[in-house]
Write a structure and sequence with these properties.
Layout lengths: L32 E4 L3 E4 L2 E2 H4 L4 H10 L5 H16 L19 H15 L5 H23 L15 H9 L3 H18 L7 H11 L4 H12 L7 H12 L4 H13 L17 H13 L4 H17 L13 H10 L8 H22 L25
Antiparallel strand pairs: 1-2, 2-3
Helix pairs in contact: 3-5, 4-5, 4-9, 5-6, 5-15, 6-7, 7-12, 7-15, 8-9, 8-15, 9-15, 10-14, 11-13, 12-14, 13-14
Bound molecules: N-hydroxyamidocarboxymethyldethia coenzyme *A.
The site of N-hydroxyamidocarboxymethyldethia coenzyme *A has 19 residues, from loops.
Length: 392
């Protein structure tokens, strides 16, 4: 923009915007994804529902390169990730062995594990580190599950050539039928959760930390800590617990339960959203997947009834901006059905997926302004006794 052109005003900050957690205040641009209130998240212009069945590796390529790979590029990218995983410094995750099995929350282990990978090796190049971390996540995830459960890493060891999700499932050492279902659910889960615009708390936190030129691992570990809160990523854990409390897929009983929760001023989990104003396409994609993988699962049946009943009841309250299902409505039930029986682990899958989107966004921001990067984040806070006046 030339000096003579007047910059468009896209948002005016009013006194009422202060202390609202930056809600809705534009602060930057995002190249990986945007969220349409009616149509949900789009990755580089593609509606997420259209990507749900793709290889997670291809979707990671999309977020990094801003285009889908051709077959040759896809193969090369998978090979590159496998080599990066094989080159993980020996003993990088040994620090996790010092923790007491079952202690703390799995998200604390995830953040610690990512930080440990960075201690073992940081190249200082955000893209290199991002790809190394993505490549090494399956082994980190499996290590967390196995060590927390009091098990060792199976003798067969890591086999990154299988693919990201496939290697994680291989490390979990399951029977073939269970492994196939788990792989199917996790592949879709990862794709659907990789990115959600730039302003969600974990992505924003990761980019903030990176803006001070902390390395990629430190930035992503911070993002994971942000994701671990119950108002953010940990909602998927709460959603399954909610479904299990309902205990019946009978529509009348479900409706009575929902009304009871509202009367008791408790959230109806799996419904509503801060930005979306229609059913989240990621919910619809997971319902389709559930019909394929676990149609007779009791939790899944409750979710299907809830999806019909809850919007009607929530819609009676004009205060509720979005009575429809969100991404978390079915994800916990699906993970439970394929063998992940402990809801406290669900947010780690969310974190695993987001490592890709947040890394891609950090890399984009570090390349902005002709390679100088977005400057160190520094929003303004106004002193408590300072008079409110126009600042420019
Ligand atoms: N159950 C009960 N009350 C709800 C509700 C729901 N599902 N959705 C909205 N409301 C209430 C809000 O709490 C708010 O009440 P107050 O005015 O008393 O504070 C009012 O209706 C208006 O809310 P809103 O403007 O429609 O929505 P918010 O942006 O304030 O809240 C939430 C969005 C997702 C937090 C909210 O819909 C909610 O609590 N849903 C249930 C929990 C849940 O499923 N969370 C996962 C969200 C998906 C996600 O982003 N995961 O990471």
């Amino acid at each position: 923009m030339s000096d003579s052109e007047e910059e468009p005003t896209i948002f005016e900050v009013k006194a009422g915007h202060l202390d609202t957690g930056l809600r809705g205040i534009p602060v930057g641009t995002c190249r990986t994804s945007f969220v349409d209130p009616m149509k949900g998240v789009h990755y580089v212009g593609y509606p997420v529902g259209d990507l749900a069945d793709m290889d997670p590796e291809d979707v990671i390529f999309l977020l990094f390169e801003k285009r889908l790979p051709n077959r040759h590029e896809s193969q090369n990218f998978r090979k590159d990730l496998a080599e990066r995983a094989e080159e993980m410094p020996a003993g990088a995750l040994r620090v996790l062995e010092a923790l007491t099995p079952g202690s703390g929350h799995p998200m604390d282990w995830l953040a610690l594990g990512i930080q440990a990978l960075g201690i073992a090796e940081t190249t200082g190049d955000f893209k290199e580190d991002g790809l190394n971390l993505i490549a090494r996540m399956p082994e980190l995830m499996a290590t967390i599950f196995l060590l927390r459960g009091g098990h060792g890493i199976p003798e067969s060891g890591s086999n990154p050539r299988l693919g990201l999700v496939e290697n994680f499932v291989h490390l979990m050492d399951l029977e073939e039928d269970k492994a196939a279902k788990m792989t199917k659910v996790l592949r879709t889960f990862l794709v659907l959760h990789m990115d959600h615009g730039g302003g969600n708390l974990s992505t924003f936190s990761g980019k903030c930390v990176a803006s001070g030129k902390a390395n990629l691992y430190a930035s992503i570990a911070s993002a994971m800590n942000a994701l671990s809160g119950p108002l953010h990523g940990r909602a998927n854990q709460a959603c399954l617990e909610f479904v299990q409390r309902i205990g019946s897929s009978d529509p009348d009983k479900v409706e009575k339960f929902v009304r009871g929760e509202l009367a008791a001023k408790r959230p109806v989990y799996g419904f509503g959203h801060a930005v979306l104003r229609a059913e989240d396409p990621r919910a619809a994609a997971q319902i389709i997947l559930g019909e394929e993988v676990c149609p007779d699962d009791s939790n899944f049946k409750i979710v299907k009834t809830l999806r019909k009943v809850a919007p009607k009841v929530l819609g009676e309250n004009p205060k509720i901006s979005n009575p429809f299902a969100n991404v978390d409505v079915a994800s916990g039930s699906l993970l439970h059905a394929v063998g992940f029986r402990k809801p406290e682990y669900y947010t780690t899958f969310f974190g695993w997926a987001r490592v890709a989107g947040i890394s891609a966004q950090i890399i984009d921001e570090r390349k902005a302004r002709g390679g100088r990067g977005v400057p160190i984040y520094r929003p303004k806070y106004i002193g408590k006794d300072q008079p409110l006046q126009r600042l420019n």
